[in-house]
Amino acid sequence: MSDAPHPADPHADSSAEASAHRADLGKDPSRVSGMFDEVAARYDRTNTVLSLGQDRLWRIAATRAVAPRPGQRILDLAAGTGASSVALARSGAEVVAGDFSPGMIAEGRRRHGHVTNVTFVEADAMALPFSDGEFDTVTISFGLRNVNDPRAALAEMRRVTAPGGRLVICEFSHPQSAAFAALYGFYNDRVLPIVARAVSSNADAYDYLNESIRDWPDQVTLSGWIRDAGWGNVAHRDLTGGIVALHRAINPATPTVPSPA
């Protein structure tokens, strides 16, 4: 899920430095990766503060949807520091924690390197370094919207999933209630930036993340993208009023031809 460019002049002003560590909606992989490198150490704590503790409930819901079992091989993409991977590994499953940020992978190994059934791997979701059909389940939480080409990533996830295997995506989405959507928008636009500047090592990163949430398609559109990548039995359910949606799908045992983009 390379390092971000740094200012050539060590005395460059703070705005230039912030720009070097701030991705934009073009989602250049090196800038997105570098941005996550920058926030790796405080990432989990910051997310808990900004989500008012809801992030832990969302990850519990994703773990339950994956329903890991001993002997399974699970790919956890956008694994970050590995908190979700460790939760999956408690079942006895073999978990590969993949992320395209070297900083996140390093932090994950530092925190969880002692967990024998979790392996940390630097991995780009659009070109996964794994064999066809290698995993029983592929899951990604809060990372698909940061991929340069999410549709290509969905196809890659299917390639590395065994026939009959499962996909679980936990991602920000769009509240269906107009009143709740307005309240959520106010929090993201007015409150979140202030809190992010108080608790994050790179508040500009959270400006990008906020923009990426607003730009991300709704539940029905993402479900369509999943079907277009050849997945079957596609379904979703809303969490926290639609702030987050949990998408599930099955890799058909009989190969299907993905719909044209």
Automatic annotation (TrEMBL):
Residues 1-30 have a biased composition (Basic and acidic residues). GO terms for biological process: menaquinone biosynthetic process; methylation. Pfam families: Ubie_methyltran. GO terms for molecular function: demethylmenaquinone methyltransferase activity. Gene3D superfamilies: Vaccinia Virus protein VP39. The keyword Ion transport does not apply. Residues 1-31 are annotated as: Disordered. Belongs to the class I-like SAM-binding methyltransferase superfamily. MenG/UbiE family. This is Demethylmenaquinone methyltransferase. The gene is menG.
